[in-house]
Amino acid sequence: xxxxxxxxxxxxxxxxxxxxxxxxxxxxxxxxxxxxxxxxxxxxxxxxxxxxxxxxxxxxxxxxxxxxxxxxxxxxxxxxxxxxxxxxxxxxxxxxxxxxxxxxxxxxxxxxxxxxxxxxxxxxxxxxxxxxxxxxxxxxxxxxxxxxxxxxxxxxxxxxxxxxxxxxxxxxxxxxxxxxxxxxxxxxxxxxxxxxxxxxxxxxxxxxxxxxxxxxxxxxxxxxxxxxxx
Length: 230
Fold this sequence. Notes:
Layout: E1 10-12, E2 20-26, E3 35-41, E4 45-52, E5 59-62, H1 66-79, E6 82-89, H2 96-114, E7 123-130, E8 133-140, E9 146-150, E10 157-158, E11 161-162, H3 164-177, E12 180-187, H4 191-210
Parallel strand pairs: 5-6, 9-12
Antiparallel strand pairs: 1-2, 2-3, 3-4, 4-6, 7-8, 8-12, 10-11
Helix pairs in contact: 1-4, 2-3
C-alpha cells in the first residue's frame, strides 16, 4: 500500500511512488459546516471524495463498482452526510484497488472534516437490523486506528463484488481516519443483507460520534485535552 501525506490546501506528489494527494478542510461561517475534500491519484486509480458531516444525506457516488456505490449511498442516507465520490481504476483486473483507494480517500476526507474534534461526542454505537441480519458497530474517533471485524459473509460475491473487500474497505478507512472501529455480526444468512446492515450501522454510529454535544462547550472530548491522528 502506498503511503499518504496530506496537508490542507496543498497538492503533494513524491518521486518515491507515493500518490498525489490534495486535501482541503472548511468550517464555513460557523462550526456546523465541516467539509473534507480529497483527491488521490496513483498509477492504479484516480479518486475524488468530498464529505460534508453536517449535510442532509445527499448521495452522489460513481466508482465503476456498482455495489460499492450502493454502500456509499447507505453511508450518506443513514449518516445524513453529503457524500460525493468519483473514482476510476483498474477494474479490468478486479475491484480491489478502487475499493481500497476510495476508502483511503474517504478516511482522509473524514479526518480533514473533523478538524480538532472539539465539541463532538467522539463515541458512536449502533445496531442495525436488515431482515434476518443484525450488525452491531461501535467506534471511537480517538485518532488511533484499529479495526476489529467479525463478519461471517456466506458467499464469495454479491453480484460482481468480492465480499472480502468489505473488511478491507473498513481497514483502509480506519487507517487514514484514525478511528477505532468494532464490527460484530449478531445474526444473518444473506450476504447482501449482512453487508448493507454493516454500512447502515456504521453510518448511524459515525453520525452519533460526529455530532456536537452542547454541554462540552467546544472542548475536546478527552481527558488529555487533545485528539489527533498519530
